[in-house]
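Q: Sequence in, structure out?
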Amino acid sequence: MQLGYTIIYVKDVVKTIEFYQKAFGIKLRFLHESNEYAEMETGQTTLGFASNEMAERNGFAIKQNSAKDIAAGFEIAFVSDNPKEKFDHAIKNGATPLSEPAKKPWGQTVAYVRDLNGCLVEICSPIATS
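A: Exactly. Output:
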């Protein structure tokens, strides 16, 4: 089995993809004509966004993400050779800062922000493997 998609349900798919393009420099791969589903260019695993209404049409209830609530129990992690630069760029483009880039005991630099939906986003350096 292989992880193919991570799909996050959001209030407004178009505003979310616009935010991710500006804050994180991620390109749009696909936006359905309904504006209720989109995919971003993120490497081997697709990051998708779907409308909250789509979850209901798929037959299940969700706790909707909100910047006003405590963050949900997941995060999106973006890897960069310059997490400080990417963190600053994200903040300038609407991300809410949670923690400045800091070096972790295992050598990785890690920072956290929240997106416009209140989702946690980690901005980090690659993990050094030996």
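The mean pLDDT is 95.
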